[in-house]
Design goal:
The chain is an alpha+beta fold. The chain contains eleven helices and 15 strands.
Length: 386
């Protein structure tokens, strides 16, 4: 499933043609429980209908506005498909969007004059663009991960697809064996002798060395030196053989030492998770380092009033808020303290959502993170530009 592109987030953040209905619903993963999900959605749509009536909307307008979500509610095929852990449904006059989420979002419903986008920023600044290079004598696979999807790339013809592809080009010294493989091709009768079938240990080593040298050099020419990070998945010995000849900057020092021969794309991804997590969390780590560097100065604040004002004025460089956390109330006037509630009362608005929207609209970065990833144990924190 795809993550939200930033142009989509920008459009949703700037949308202010209400009423805007924002629904977030975690998905049950067990087959025995997933039938509860459409019931939860129906209940939330019923609550949205009541809120719209209180806003003065007519029955016909409400039915038209909620109709796309009602279709999802009644679509059995929708609820039985895919690995999504959550869904987001956004409705407004003339606008409908539904997104699959790869994480368990807290259940919530808001009806305001703008969309509730807080959960959509969860991990959105993770660097999810990287390559997995799975190499063994039998195959070469380059798998790209981007926008939450895995896709095997088609390699050019000059990159050997396996060790047999270079056999006809490999010359061996007659002193090692009383023949040469110069005329042994992938389709010849002797092709099966090339790797582990009748060759001496020395000849096997020579063939493997040639294979990884050619593979490394051709991949280095094909791939962008400053392209996405690449994780090598190969046996420990073959890792060393490949790295000896591949010198582009995109290859990470840490690889996954295992044979990829019998692993599919998803299994390769799961095997590489320890390294992937280091790649994806890098932007957040750097933002937290900047925050810690300026602790104790006027550029750090976790006072809600100061954060709301700074977000309105475009002075927030990085904003940190925990996923599932929200503070409800009325925006404070100049010099006023804001009174907050855990749940909306008397026309309250979602204040953290307002801070996130305004931070993003002014080019700042809102990090919606797990509570354990907050730079301090606070409900919200910000690193200011000035």
């Amino acid at each position: 499933m795809k993550t939200l592109a930033h142009d989509e987030l920008k459009s949703l953040t700037e949308w202010e043609q209400g009423p805007c209905i924002s629904i977030y619903l975690p998905r049950h993963q067990a087959l025995s429980d997933y039938r509860e999900d459409p019931i939860h959605l129906r209940n939330m749509l019923d609550q949205a209908e009541t809120a719209l009536q209180e806003r003065g909307m007519g029955t016909g307008e409400i039915k038209t506005l909620l109709e796309p979500a009602r279709k999802i509610q009644n679509d059995g095929n929708f609820w039985g498909r895919g690995p999504a852990q959550g869904i987001c449904i956004l409705l407004a006059p003339g606008m409908f969007q539904q997104y699959d989420l790869f994480y368990q979002c807290p259940q919530s419903l808001t009806v305001e004059d703008s969309f509730y986008v807080n959960p959509l920023f969860y991990k959105v600044y993770e660097n999810d663009h990287f390559d997995l290079l799975a190499v063994c004598p039998k195959s070469v696979r380059l798998i790209r991960h981007q926008n939450g999807e895995l896709k095997q790339l088609e390699l050019p013809e000059n990159i050997p697809e396996n060790i047999e592809a270079i056999s006809s080009k490999t010359q061996f010294e007659e002193s090692l064996q009383h023949h040469t493989t110069s005329h042994v091709g992938p389709g010849s009768d002797n092709a099966s002798m090339l790797h582990g079938h009748g060759l001496t240990k020395e000849l096997n080593e020579t063939l493997m060395t040639d294979y990884f040298q050619i593979l490394a050099k051709q991949l280095e020419k094909y791939l962008d030196n400053d392209g996405p990070p690449m994780i090598l998945i190969a046996s420990e010995k073959q890792q060393s053989m490949f790295r000896k000849h591949y010198h582009a900057n995109n290859l990470l020092e840490q690889g996954i030492s295992t044979s990829p021969d019998h692993l599919n794309e998803q299994e390769l991804y799961e095997a590489a998770l320890p390294v992937i997590e280091q790649i994806t969390s890098k932007p957040l780590r750097k933002a937290r380092e900047q925050y810690q560097k300026h602790l104790g100065t006027s550029r750090i604040t976790h006072q809600l009033e100061a954060i709301l004002q700074a977000a309105d004025e475009g002075r927030i460089e990085a904003l940190f808020a925990p996923l599932g956390s929200e503070l409800w109330g009325q925006p404070p006037g100049d010099g006023e303290l804001v009174k907050t509630h855990d749940q909306p009362v008397n026309g309250d608005i979602a204040l953290l959502n307002r801070a996130i929207r305004n931070t993003y609209k002014h080019g700042g970065i809102p990090y919606v993170v797990a509570e354990s990833d907050m730079p301090e144990d606070k409900p919200v924190a910000a690193y200011l530009r000035w």
